[in-house]
Design goal:
Helix content: 25-40%
CATH topology: Aminopeptidase
Strand content: 15-25%
CATH class: Alpha Beta
Strand order of the largest sheet: 12-7-2-3-4-13
Radius of gyration: 20 Å
Length: 346
């Protein structure tokens, strides 16, 4: 069955979850913890051991040898999932947010690419194209990594899988984050209770639930502005984590991370990232994938919504990421999602 695309001219409002993923500064907190005494060092080491999970024999299939973050440029895929009691499907949970970070060791710079959860992508695990967030449902972090590698034609060296609880608990452990809220609004909370969070306009300290609501709301503007709000929360977490007030709370922060995270990074590898946080010159560049709203018929003939990537934007993004990683230019950077569409699923 061939694919049909129905381009949507007027963007339909949907209850799509947002890219709340604000975990990179949290990773820096974890790596920075090694500087503060034997107790915290041991606690961080135990946390990483308990969180470790690797299904790929230590390296990407797109690498000839295993990378060393102390000397190599590397990439990290952050996989956000919602494992709340209301939504959790255990191992079959779909990813709620995807963020790819490429790190340039010499420049101490980071590219952060948001990958929309509804992106139409080929998933090798099942042999057809569907929403990219289904990859985790079909094969966990391994299938998600392979799907992103296929889409962007770059190696994914590491992954970090976390859930909403980590985001909220870490902000609470930090004592909240300072945010200048641009407008008054009400939003659902992490348990999907409508209008449970209400914020007034102005500079204020937000707890975990409030920060999540601020990052996810879309009622007052659009997805572009929502992305800017997420970047603002990232900066707020980073600023708070860099302050001296964080030191007494490192144990609590490590507990929050360890209870809600899986990763294929070892303790020694995560220590290597401390240099990015303490260099004082860390440069973070945010990136997005352009595209358009599309409905594609599934095998039952029902139109299913997808975010169809713009081939030119995808190609430019691939070039930029490969350059940042110091890789040779890709031979083919077009979106080759040519398999049959998804069966009768959304």
């Amino acid at each position: 069955m061939g694919r049909q695309y129905i381009k949507v001219s007027n963007k339909k409002k949907r209850n799509r979850r947002i890219f709340w993923f604000l975990i990179f500064p949290i990773l820096l907190i974890a790596s920075g913890a090694i500087s503060y005494g034997v107790h915290i060092y041991t606690k961080a080491e135990d946390m990483m051991a308990n969180s470790y999970q690797d299904d790929r024999d230590g390296k990407s299939d797109l690498r000839e040898t295993k990378v060393d973050p102390k000397i190599d440029n590397v990439s990290i895929l952050f996989i956000g999932i919602d494992e709340s009691s209301k939504r959790s499907q255990g191992a079959n949970t779909r990813s709620d947010a995807l963020l790819l970070a490429t790190l340039n060791e010499k420049q101490k710079s980071v590219n952060l690419l948001s990958i929309p959860r509804d992106t139409y992508a080929y998933i090798d695990e099942v042999g057809y194209s569907t929403k990219i967030n289904h990859a985790h449902k079909f094969g966990g972090p391994k299938a998600t990594i392979e799907t992103v590698e296929n889409l962007l034609d770059i190696p994914v060296d590491y992954y970090v899988r976390v859930d909403f609880e980590a985001f909220m608990e870490i902000i609470d452990a930090l004592g909240g984050v300072d945010i200048d809220v641009p407008f008054a609004f009400s939003e659902q909370d992490s348990k999907d209770r409508a209008n449970a969070i209400s914020l007034e306009a102005g500079l204020q300290t937000l707890d975990g639930e409030q920060a999540l609501a601020f990052a996810r709301t879309r009622h007052m503007d659009n997805d572009i502005e929502r992305g800017k709000r997420q970047q603002e929360v990232i900066k707020a977490i980073t600023n708070k984590a860099a302050s001296g007030a964080t030191i007494p709370k490192l144990g609590q922060i490590i507990d929050a991370i360890g209870n809600n995270m899986k990763t294929n990074m070892t303790f020694d590898e995560i220590k290597a990232f401390a240099d990015y946080g303490i260099s004082g010159n860390l440069s973070i560049n945010t990136m997005n994938l352009d595209g358009f709203d599309t409905y594609i018929p599934n095998s039952a003939g029902n139109n299913v919504y997808y975010w169809q990537l713009d081939d030119q934007s995808l190609a430019e993004t691939t070039v930029a990421l490969r350059q940042h990683l110091g890789l040779e230019p890709a031979t083919d950077v077009t979106n080759n999602n040519v398999a049959e569409p998804a069966p009768n699923v959304e």
